[in-house]
Design brief:
- By secondary structure, the protein is of the alpha/beta class.
- 35% of the residues lie in helices and 19% in strands.
- It contains 14 helices and 14 strands.
- It has a ten-stranded mixed beta sheet with strand order 5-4-6-7-1-8-14-13-9-10, with helices on both faces. A two-stranded antiparallel ribbon has the order 2-3.
- A hairpin with a 3-residue loop joins strand 13 (393-400) and strand 14 (404-411).
- Helix 7 (167-180) crosses helix 14.
């Protein structure tokens, strides 16, 4: 470890989302305003109020894992490995850092929920001897990080971030600190989730968190007056983070710099955001202060934007409190959850990727199906169509159950 504060850049990215099985397809879907939401196919929804979700379509884990690995892993781990393989291949970092200086921080909000429910059903119906010997390693939340570390011989720290809907952003932010303070030279980071299960959806319905609209284009409605809950999504997203000078020395492609990170807790309620957005405000302030924000910056905010009545108002208020009313009205804000649904522990990682791709191409993804603006959500949410725009600073918010808030600030590398 050294005492120098080091810069952290992104040199590889990968994604498996409801919009596509790789980053290129997913990004094209975001720019086109494609809706990744449709009828739930993973279980019978006859007795369920919520009928739609943002599922990953046509995913074959055997493209990334052999037959035995596939049998030993939950769907959330399979998504994580797939996204990480894409990111690592994009980066080319493996082999350029010592194994003990290479780490994995990978988030998930829930972990192996599908495995848990399947094995508990076996226990009840067929007795304890029928429970799989792989039950525990398939279920536990750290296994995505563990599998990625095994594949790439990452002998530095390998662990999950489990902060509900903020997990992906928390994993990235903590990985940034790991590199910044000299504990690693590269970290494979991101988040994954696969909670579209019978019990998972039932739980979210019964806490009145999910939209019950059966119209895919009227279900996930961030900042719209008609919004009435989020749409559950799934997938995985991964970024390779690398110490700046190391990336430059090997001639790596650099997508951008993670230059600020804020992490706070509302300490208020197990599910509801603080009505005055105090935790979100502090997380954003921490992130933009680290990033050296000034009034001259033009800012894009990739909002948490879940489409729940409370979240969108609280987040709008938080943005105004952080940047001021006048500045907030000049900014562009959008929620890609209008297209991907809420990928839970994967959402923050995918949203960070969306920021980096927006920098690369000079275009901001939209908030689709925003047809009836809420008077309490009165900022520019890039309604319905992507817009060409080149901010100097991007801010990505993730706000999770338990009051967890994580904010990433991203700049182009100069």
């Amino acid at each position: 470890m050294d005492n120098k504060i080091r810069r952290v850049v992104v040199t590889g990215m990968g994604a498996v989302t409801p919009l596509g099985l790789d980053l290129s397809e997913s990004w094209d879907g975001l720019l086109a305003g494609k809706c990744g939401i449709g009828p739930i196919t993973q279980f019978d929804t006859t007795e369920y109020k919520a009928k739609v979700a943002a599922e990953v379509k046509d995913f074959d884990p055997r493209e990334y894992l052999d037959k035995s690995e596939t049998a030993r892993t939950d769907r959330f781990t399979q998504f994580a490995v797939a996204a990480a393989v894409q990111a690592v291949e994009d980066s080319g970092v493996i082999g350029t850092t010592a194994p003990e200086r290479t780490a994995v921080y990978f988030g998930t909000g829930i972990g192996g929920l599908k495995t848990l429910t399947e094995e508990y059903t076996k226990l009840n119906n067929r007795g304890p001897k029928r429970v799989s010997p792989y039950f525990v390693p398939k279920m536990i939340a750290n296994m995505a990080a563990g599998m990625i570390a095994i594949r790439y011989n990452c002998q530095g720290p390998a662990m999950p971030a489990v902060t509900a809907c903020a997990s992906g952003s928390s994993a990235i932010g903590e990985a940034v600190r790991l590199i910044r303070h000299g504990y690693a030279d590269a970290v494979i980071s991101g988040g994954s989730e696969a909670a579209i299960t019978d019990v998972g959806v039932a739980g979210f319905i019964n806490m009145q968190a999910l939209s019950v609209s059966e119209d895919p284009n009227a279900a996930s409605l961030p900042f719209d007056k008609r919004r009435a809950g989020f749409v559950i999504g799934e997938g995985g997203a991964s970024l390779v983070l690398e110490e700046y000078e190391h990336a430059v020395s090997r001639g790596a492609k650099i997508y951008g710099e993670i230059c600020g990170y804020g992490s706070t807790c509302d300490a208020y309620h197990i599910t509801a955001p603080h009505p005055e957005g105090i935790g979100a405000i502090q997380a954003m302030k921490q992130a933009i202060e680290e990033a050296g924000y000034t009034e001259e910056d033009t800012v894009y905010v990739n909002a948490h934007g879940t489409g729940t009545p409370l979240n969108d108002v609280a987040e709008t208020l938080a943005v105004k409190k952080v940047f001021g009313e006048e500045k907030a009205k000049e900014m562009k804000i959008s929620s890609i959850k209008s297209m991907t649904g809420h990928m839970l522990g994967a959402s923050g990682a995918m949203e960070a990727i969306a920021c980096l791709k927006a920098f690369e191409e000079g275009i901001i993804p939209p908030t689709i199906n925003l047809l009836e603006p809420d008077p309490e959500c009165d900022l520019d949410y890039v309604p319905n169509k992507a817009v060409k725009w080149e901010p100097t600073l991007m801010v990505s918010n993730s706000l999770g159950f338990g009051g967890h808030n994580a904010c990433l600030a991203i700049r182009k590398v100069k």
